[in-house]
Specification:
The structure is a single chain. The protein has 382 residues and is α/β, with parallel strands linked by helices. It has a domain of 261 residues: Rossmann fold (3-Layer(aba) Sandwich). It contains 14 helices and seven strands. The protein has a seven-stranded mixed β-sheet, sandwiched between helices. α7 links the parallel β4 and β5. α12 packs across α14.
């Protein structure tokens, strides 16, 4: 217990996923905040969809959600995209094309839970109007695509719209220098980069920009002419990369303290704690813009930072115990798989119990201060 090997960067891609299933700490039951934030940005998504060039309606229209995870949010946003495109075709006096929607995430994603949430396919023998009017049906063909979105996933010139929300802040790997004890970037004593050294945060920034460059290069090859992409990821307003904003408060305070508790109680070694790092980086607009401009394949329709609000959705804000429980479940739903792999299930349970306890003790402060910012990018293929 607690003697699991350190999760290597090669294993990270194989293991990383939001917590599957439908349990209390599952992503499916702890992604309400993402749903709220996504809904607040639907007008921006629709603006991006208006930039997509419509092709011959005899050719299927292809929509891809990258980093789909395993909850209903991805299904809801694909539904919004397709209905908006249908309205655009109809406004031009055309019958809409058939639609394909690809849900993509790493191979460890719980695709089974996701597919169970999909409504049944509408009967294509009836009119599109009847399909859309029918309750609890979908008007598109669905498929899952496992793989890292930092590499190619689709044939060249095959996709009309790419959508990705709350995923691009996840790095493809923890920078090697951050895990190297001999390096000045070694993140000693921490499990996240909030408050870390400039060397450590710079290594994370470089990794983020390398990953984003790979993402853009892959999408530019896969996208149809005049296709569009709508991207949302965690961002920050501070120019100081050691200040990771809401992500820092989520993973750099009570989550960090819970790891320190396990060390002080002798349940894990300092080395075990220091060898764990959350592979997340919240970029600035400039961090993001530099990569898009260097790639040169996309024109920027919109690039801005928006306030997303709190990641904690609670029914009774005055109930500190509920705040603590929601904090623990929120952290666990996105990082629990990595924690389990690093220290084992039993110690992972102990860790998140401590996160819950600390969150309960600071409930009011968390609700007041824990706010996320998001970078929103609408890009069109040049």
């Amino acid at each position: 217990m607690g003697d699991n090997v350190v999760v290597s960067n090669m294993e990270l891609e194989r293991l990383l996923s939001m917590k599957g299933g439908k349990g209390e700490a599952s992503y499916a039951n702890n992604s309400q905040a993402q749903a709220i934030h996504a809904k607040s940005m639907l007008h921006l998504l629709k603006e991006a969809l208006d930039k997509v060039e419509l092709h011959d309606p005899n050719i299927p229209f292809v929509v891809v959600d990258l980093g789909c995870s395993c909850g209903s949010n991805t299904i809801n946003v694909v539904d919004v995209i397709i209905k908006h495109i249908i309205k655009r075709y109809e406004a031009l006096g055309f019958n809409p094309p058939e639609f394909s929607a690809f849900f993509s995430d790493l191979p460890s994603n719980d695709f089974n839970t996701l597919f169970q949430l999909l409504p049944p396919l509408a009967n294509y023998g009836v009119s599109m109007e009847e399909c859309l009017a029918a309750n609890n049906t979908r008007s598109y063909f669905a498929a899952g695509v496992p793989g890292s979105f930092y590499r190619r996933l689709f044939p060249a010139r095959s996709v009309d719209v790419f959508h990705s929300a709350f995923s691009l802040h996840w790095l493809s790997q923890v920078p090697e220098s951050v895990q190297d004890k001999r390096s000045n970037a070694y993140n000693k004593g921490r499990v996240f980069i909030h408050g870390a050294s400039d060397m450590t945060t710079n290594a994370y920034k470089k990794q983020f920009q390398r990953d984003l460059a790979g993402f853009l290069s892959s999408r530019s090859a896969e996208m149809k002419s005049k296709g569009s992409m709508f991207l949302v990821c965690l961002g920050r307003t501070s120019v100081d990369p050691t200040d990771q904003g809401g992500a820092g408060l989520l993973f750099g305070t009570h989550f960090q303290d819970a790891w320190d508790d396990l060390v002080q109680e002798g349940l894990i070694s300092t080395e075990k704690r220091d060898s764990f790092n959350i592979p997340i980086y919240a970029p600035t607009l400039q961090d993001f813009k530099e990569v898009v401009e260097a790639d040169g394949s996309f024109s920027i329709n919109k690039l801005e930072v928006v306030k997303g609000g709190s990641p904690l959705v609670v029914n009774q804000p005055d109930d500190a115990s509920e705040v603590g429980r929601v904090l623990a479940n929120s952290c666990r739903s996105v990082s629990g798989v990595l924690v389990d792999a690093h220290i084992g299930d039993k110690l992972s349970e102990e860790l998140f119990l401590r996160v819950e306890k600390r969150g309960t003790n600071h409930g009011k402060e968390l609700l007041e201060k824990l706010q996320l910012f998001h970078i929103v990018a609408s890009l069109s293929l040049v």
